[in-house]
Specification:
Helix 4 (91-110) packs across helix 31 (963-971). The protein has 972 residues and is of the alpha/beta class. The protein has a seven-stranded mixed beta barrel. A five-stranded parallel beta sheet has the order 9-5-4-12-13, with helices on both faces. Among the domains are: 453-683, Aconitase, domain 3; 746-971, Alpha-Beta Barrel (Aconitase, domain 4). The protein has 31 helices and 37 strands. Pfam families: Aconitase, Aconitase_C. Its cofactor is [4Fe-4S] cluster. This is Iron-responsive element-binding protein 2.
């Protein structure tokens, strides 16, 4: 909130009105009396209100207000700024931001400035969620490997025939009442059952306080042990977070074991409208994750930015953006009863991906929107990064307000909210076409055309109708290696590899499911999808079906609320009986934190060069991400994850082939156990009640015992522990001067990496587990850590030494210098092939600057700050590519790395570049947005590139050496 206390000095003070008899004030853009306002998309009206309210003549100018108001003429032309109401950090991307702020306090203190002045000016929430690893499964506790997958040898001719049931534990219920918080099995199910080839051990339940009612309950040992391991291995990092919550003003840390960042943002942090200093205004947010767009489903404008940009916003700078085009997505038609919300999500994703709407806003309208619940809308909005739009906005309507009644907003707050939103015309009825704004273009999507789909085997945009899955997987085996193909020769496609598990022989084939994970984060937070899966599990158990005991199954609820409603609806015990045990809360499988598959399963996969499969209801499934030996991964709705786990293979036609065979020999088809939409809706209405959200809020406010007992330093500056391998003061502020240095040319630079098209942030930024032969592992070994203590890159994001070594360390990196995938490159002066970090280290010792050559869509994928910080610390001065993903381009600028784009129709090949030349770029005294510069090579070539600066602010940030140095100089 900027400059509202000095109302008379505000250039738009004449727009101020009052609500509640003048007790609350607001800026009303309608008082501009400009007919253009009623034609603006509602997302643009939110931008306009923020520009009016925050107009200070410096960051936000009256020119910005006029340009936004004149959106029809200025879209894609004018550069404006946006000041969000708050910043959202999740711990993996939030810890580097907080480490940088702590280091900035050190830097300004060295110049004699009070370090306590360094605080976020914008309210900042940090949610600790991304640190859960599956160390234990139920099978592991029974002294057997974590379950894998495949086809039982006794059923080799019928892969869908069931194997024996899994053991099930018995637990007491909270308060002993029906529908209360039992986290173990329902008492009317067997306490244990046989496993093939091994004895059965009853799992003892450990008493724990119910997180919802604070009453004694029983917790399965798997979830408890995973939680204990998470908290113990990350204690040092959590101590730093707690220091941040105490040392910095305007920082709120949501402790661990509460839930995933986007769930907490939706269910606790989001307010639709904010009230600060007596002024009411729309809630808005930028977050350090591309899926921040999830809140767009609630009519809250927000999107993901890089960690560097979020730090700038935290410290008072607005977000610069080109005034976007807004695509109106008109939804018509009726939803098919068998179609889940995930099918609708993937269907809309495909349509919008094909529409080439990168960098634009999408705003939904039309009568079909009214059929979507608020969770449906947030699910759709979550997938926004997959079709490269900036936001997917659902304006607020009566459905949104009804949703907030369930989340325990007081009637007074709801009345105030509705009155304000209607007063400024950012509330609408989708049934009234007269309220439809004017859009840049309109895309119409018929909801009745949506059919059940999965996505894969390597990219989220590659959708496959479930009815065509068997044929599509066969084509993947036939096709050459690429985004879908695996190129398996015909003579090897029918191979069956036997292996032993728990004393029984089974077989793996191409298409065998070895990982099945039901996850309720981000795009699957919708209760209807999880309840459909639970009801399917219930019907499967009742029909006598089971999941093979070696398929690595897991159930990772995004928050305790999910466990609560699955439990109170009575489906959680059936999940458990099929092997989908609650393993804890937080991101696990889809961020690469999958426990290793059993060695016999891995050996069988390798022996047959099998295309084994993972099926998960998360949001990421690139090849090798779940597990290095699992080459085909499919995103599916939660009920389809259960269905494919029951089948044991993805190569199945559910219409024609049975899902399984009961012990009596009866064939059971998917249609026999698929719950109806009416059944799901009835269960949802009975279980998703306001008390769930009240319990969540109480849980957040009360915290947990572990968090309360963490001790942290009581100091203004952080006392860095030089022995720490988790938290380290980065070198971003070394040799920081008060004056802005003159532009420095890049002379005789070598190419660190010569890359092709579609290099994603997964290829660039460290993620997942730390390989034992990696440069990061060598560093940790030098610190006397064992491989068991390595933890993950995500947990060590606060240590620049680990993260720099993990940059470009992906086993899937395709470097043209090497000719095969791997984290290696060519040290050009010596001609040696070495780790990327080792090459960069040599170049820095030799005083040689570095650049990167790349193809199209460089930097697509998740938002990650280390995707720019890592290259900066490796010594990269510029990236020359055919095109950039916009968010990543902004991150490069934010770290002082030049994003340079080849001219149209030009690339490294057309220019005859080998990558082994030396490159020189003369830097002019003054830079301007989209300026053309000339690059010269040591072999006499010369070519022009475009400096991809979008605005003068970009140029200023680059001249300072990035956001961090720019902000630090404001204190000096």
């Amino acid at each position: 909130m900027a400059h509202t206390s000095s109302v008379k000095a505000h250039p738009y003070s004449n727009l101020i009105e009052g609500l509640k008899d003048g007790q609350i004030k607001f800026f009303n853009p309608q008082k501009l009396d400009d007919p253009r306002y009623d034609k603006l998309p509602l997302s643009i009206r939110v931008l306009l209100e923020a520009a009016i309210r925050n107009c200070d003549g410096f960051y936000t100018k009256e020119e910005d207000v006029e340009n936004i108001l004149d959106w029809q003429q200025q879209q894609n032309k004018a550069e404006v700024v946006f000041t969000p109401a708050r910043v959202l950090l999740q711990d993996f991307t939030g810890i580097p931001a907080m480490v940088d702020l702590a280091a900035m306090r050190d830097a300004v203190a060295k110049h004699g400035v009070d370090p306590s002045l360094v605080n976020p000016k914008c309210p900042t929430d940090l949610v600790v969620d991304h640190s859960l690893q599956i160390d234990y499964s139920k099978c592991a506790i029974q002294n057997t490997p974590n379950p894998g997958g495949g086809v039982g040898s006794n059923h080799s001719q019928n892969p869908s025939r069931p194997a024996p049931s899994r053991p099930l534990s018995r637990g007491s219920q909270c308060g002993g009442q029906q529908g209360s918080c039992s986290k173990a099995a329902c008492s009317d199910l067997p306490a244990s059952s046989g496993r093939p080839g091994g004895s059965v051990q009853q799992i003892e339940n450990t008493p724990l306080l119910c997180p919802f009612h604070l009453q004694p309950v029983s917790e399965t040992e798997t979830a408890l042990k995973n939680q204990e391991m998470e908290l113990s291995r990350n204690k040092e990092r959590l101590q730093f977070f707690k220091w941040c919550s105490n040392a910095f003003k305007n920082v709120n840390v949501v402790p661990p074991d509460v839930g995933a960042v986007h769930q907490v943002n939706l269910e606790h942090l989001s307010r639709v409208v904010q009230v600060t200093d007596g002024f009411i205004y729309p809630d808005s947010v930028v977050g350090t994750d591309s899926h921040t767009t999830m809140v767009n489903g609630l009519g809250i404008l927000g999107w993901g930015v890089g960690g560097i940009e979020s730090e700038a916003v935290m410290l008072g700078q607005p977000v610069p953006l080109a005034l976007p085009q807004v695509v109106g997505c008109k939804l018509v038609g009726s939803i098919n009863p068998l179609t889940t919300s995930i099918d609708i999500v993937l269907g809309i994703t495909k349509h919008l991906r094909q529409a080439a709407i990168a960098g634009r806003f999408v705003e939904f309208f039309g009568p079909g929107v009214s059929q979507l619940s608020a969770p449906d809308r947030t699910t759709i909005a979550n997938m926004c990064p997959e079709y490269n739009a900036t936001v997917s906005f659902f304006p607020i309507d009566q459905v949104t307000l009804k949703h907030f009644k369930k989340t325990n907003f007081s009637q007074e707050k709801l009345d105030l909210m509705e009155s304000y939103l209607k007063a400024v015309k950012i509330f609408r009825s989708y049934e009234d076409p007269s309220e439809d704004p004017q859009y840049s273009e309109v895309i119409e999507i018929n909801l009745s055309s949506m059919v059940p789909q999965v996505s894969g085997p390597k990219r989220p945009q590659d959708r496959v109708a479930v009815s065509s899955m068997k044929e599509d997987f066969q084509s993947c085996l036939d096709e050459k290696v690429g985004f879908k193909g695996f190129h398996i020769s015909k003579e090897k496609q029918d191979i069956r590899i036997p292996f032993l598990h728990c004393g029984e022989e089974y077989q793996l084939v191409h298409g065998s499911v070895v990982i099945a994970s039901v996850i309720s984060c981000t795009n699957n937070c919708n209760p209807s999808a999880m309840l459909t899966a639970g009801l399917l599990a219930k019907k499967a158990v009742e029909a006598g079906l089971v999941v093979r005991p070696y398929i690595q199954t897991s159930l990772a609820p995004g928050v305790g609320m999910v466990t609560h409603y699955l439990n109170t609806s009575g489906v959680l015990p059936y999940f458990s009986q099929l092997g989908f045990e609650v393993i804890g809360y937080g991101c696990a499988t889809c961020v690469g934190n999958t426990s290793p598959l059993p060695e016999p399963v891995v050996d069988a996969i390798k022996q047959g060069d099998l295309v084994a499969c993972g099926v998960l209801s998360g949001n990421r499934h690139f090849e090798g991400r779940l597990c290095a030996c699992v080459r085909a991964n499919y995103l599916a709705s939660p009920p389809l994850v259960v269905a494919y786990a029951l089948a044991g293979t993805v190569a199945i036609n559910f219409e024609q082939e049975p899902l399984g065979v009961t012990s009596e020999g009866k064939e059971v088809y998917l249609r026999d156990i698929w719950p109806s939409r009416e059944e799901v809706r009835e269960t949802e209405e009975d279980t998703i009640i306001s008390s769930i959200f009240k319990d969540l809020r109480q849980r957040i406010e009360k915290g947990n015992m572990f968090w309360s007992n963490i001790e942290c330093p009581d100091s203004v500056v952080f006392p860095w522990d030089h022995k720490s391998t988790y938290i380290r003061s980065p070198s971003f502020f070394s040799k920081l001067s008060k004056e802005v240095p003159a532009p420095q040319s890049i002379e005789n630079a070598h190419v660190l990496l010569f890359l092709g098209n579609n290099v994603t942030t997964d290829h660039i930024s460290p993620a997942g587990s730390i390989a034992r032969v990696s440069a990061a592992a060598k560093y940790l070994l030098s610190k006397r850590l064992t491989p068991r203590e390595f933890n993950s890159y995500g947990a060590r994001r606060g240590n620049d030494a680990v993260m720099t070594r993990g940059t470009f360390a992906s086993i899937k990196l395709q470097n043209r210098f090497i000719g095969k995938a791997g984290p290696k490159t060519l040290h050009i002066p010596s001609g040696q092939t070495v780790d990327v970090f080792e090459a960069a280290e040599r170049y820095q010792k030799e005083g040689i600057p570095l650049i990167i050559l790349a193809g199209k869509d460089y930097g697509s994928g998740n938002s990650r700050d280390w995707v720019a910080k890592g290259p900066y610390l490796l010594g990269v001065r510029a990236v020359i590519a055919e095109s950039f993903e916009k968010l990543h381009k902004n991150q490069l600028v934010g770290m002082g790395i030049m994003p340079l784009q080849f001219l149209p129709e030009q690339n490294a090949d057309s220019l005859g570049l080998s990558g082994k030349e030396k490159f020189t770029l003369a830097m002019p005294d003054s830079l301007s947005p989209r300026q053309q510069l000339t690059v010269k090579t040591s072999d006499g070539k010369s070519f022009d590139v475009t400096a991809m600066f979008d605005s003068e602010i970009d140029v200023i940030i680059f001249r300072h050496g990035g956001h961090l140095r720019y902000v630090a100089r404001t204190f000096l």
